[in-house]
């Protein structure tokens, strides 16, 4: 186990051989004092003659005085400390024990246990039914009070209605819905109708947690059900599968996969069986390069004008299969210039644009269009125009003012379907040219390994480059962080200011210094972080963390560790465990704690070899400054070696009594009979 103060592992002479972290031991002997010279021999001789006469009386007085002092101290200690009676060969002591931190885990555990009892016990279920029938009106009053509470904040959105729905579901199961005079809501709109003051938030509807927007949107009252949501301003959010993450400064956005020609990248959002007849939403994007809105041809090619093709430089929103149009969001070339080819690449709603004459019939008027390029000479650069986000209703240039003013609902779009459906929604980001020239958006440099060679890099690695042709800025560059896109490709971030890439190049991994910060011993005891040694025992470290604190406390109280397989000591040890776990940071595994008590005096050379090797490795890390140290706590156990773990019987205490031999440590674990079998084996190693 890593010492949080020294950031390295420390040995512990009392380590349990089968469940052994590494712990510090500060119990150094400080009671041995050196002799002092004294040259006053004559005085000593005189005193010795007189002292011999009174020695018996003096000793008797000292003994009586010591007994009185011990009785007084014992009385004080018994009042001040826990009353755990110990049986040890060593001197017994009493002292205060550890206490855990404070949190609400005990309450959650209690509710979990109650839930399990209710499911398993018919009598409890029957009693609950009787309670609901007898107290229906009282519950109804509570619900009414909560429902009309007007100061519920957004941070608790959904909490009031969660209570309402839970109570209502109990009443419905008991055939008492008449108390609330309504059925269980099956949609966000139904919740809004029953409880008009409901805030936006997550609700349990039709067996699922669903986000309900209870505010007015798109000219309609609340009760909107969220089907699709992607917030790239949150640095912890990743793009949907198949999309690429583009970053420029503080802007993060998702774009289509790298392509040398026209393409779309798609993501679907299922309705989960929820019926809807109206779609309301908003999308924010950024222009990259020379986007041309919905221009009907590219280099004379007219094969991209149907709903299933890359008909737009922007975003296409459809529903179901075959695709039915919901909304299109376009990115035009310029917002303030029409002197490039008569403005044919500008938005259909832009002044002087001919695109309004060639707009696809399935789009109709169900679109937004805007440009992020402020150029006044018709030019566009292969950059991401981050200063003017698209489709937000702001920053419309002189030519495209109508694109904003004619759409008063911006940034929200709204489409009444004229029918009720459960179709999935699909969002596609499209472009009729390669991503090197236009996209919405594109700012990321992507490295592809040759000859199908895996790069074996992760998101924590850094690389530099050599022998790159064209994009020479990368050769010998400062180490750049890697974002893994696949086994053969990775991103190195924004490269829009670099020269065009031609060919070649090799990526060189660079090891970067890393600073590790550790908690103090106090903090880590109450808020531990664990390095998992066996994911099949994922819950084990938290249990052992409590157990080892209890072992230290037990030894401090009793002066020794529990005796091997002694049931009485094991029961007392459980009392100490419960004292340590007063804050109920975990539900105690009593069977595990009994084994920890039984084996605490054991000593097994293979386990010590494991601890020693880990300790040595950590020392090497500390001295060399290479490789990452263990962080905070590391517990390792091998309880599966015990016979009872394999279906055998638990050892009696008599089988683990010390015999005064060098093998007493192993006998304390496996018993004397097993040790005899080991001694009789004649394996050549």
Describe this structure in words.
The chain is of the alpha+beta class and 685 residues long. It has four domains: 2-21 and 532-678, 3-Layer(aba) Sandwich (Rossmann fold); 121-210, no CATH class; 244-439, no CATH class; 450-495 and 502-510, Ubiquitin-activating enzyme E1, FCCH domain (Elongation Factor Tu (Ef-tu), domain 3, Beta Barrel). The protein contains 15 helices and 25 strands. The protein has helices at residues 41-80, 105-120, 122-134, 136-147, 159-173, 188-194, 355-358, 401-405, 521-526, 540-558, 567-580, 590-599, 605-624, 664-670, 672-680; strands at 2-3, 8-9, 201-205, 208-213, 224-225, 244-248, 251-255, 261-269, 276-281, 285-289, 314-319, 324-331, 367-370, 384-390, 413-421, 425-433, 438-439, 444-448, 462-469, 480-481, 483-484, 489-494, 503-510, 530-531, 633-634. Strands 8-16-11-12-13 form a five-stranded mixed β-sheet, with no helix packed on it. Pathway: Protein modification; protein ubiquitination.
